[in-house]
Write a structure and sequence with these properties.
2 domains, four-stranded antiparallel β-sheet, four-stranded mixed β-sheet, alpha+beta
Amino acid sequence: MQARSISARGAVFLAAALAIAVFGGMFFYHHYFAAAPAAECETYPLQLKLSPSGQRQALQEQEACGGSEQVRTRVLVGKSGGAAPVTAFEIVSSKALGSMSVGQRALPLTLRWEGDERLLIIHPAGLASRLPAGVYGGVEVRLQAAPAGR
């Protein structure tokens, strides 16, 4: 069997067809997958506790995103009416049920001020904050797991 050589015109046509296929595929992939809308997230304030003098505050909030069963719970601390508060506690929990608007997903936290610059956060046993105890926004934050069965 004799091998046939490809003409210059055929080579140009083949190269153009391959380029169209490759770049067309890349265009389709980028616009179909990369441009997918981000999940809509809603953040709900759950409780606000002021320090004894009212100069500092601790805010518990939760964030739920569509298409996910995970709920992010944060405690933000800072000066009342001052600069933006900083995150001092964060837990991501799963298997959330119910509607955020009625608080059925709320993670039970106790926020207890022990003076104007010290906050105790009591959280459910078995869940740990992504942030360690320490000083956040000028507030010493202590963490404590709630007794089992509470």
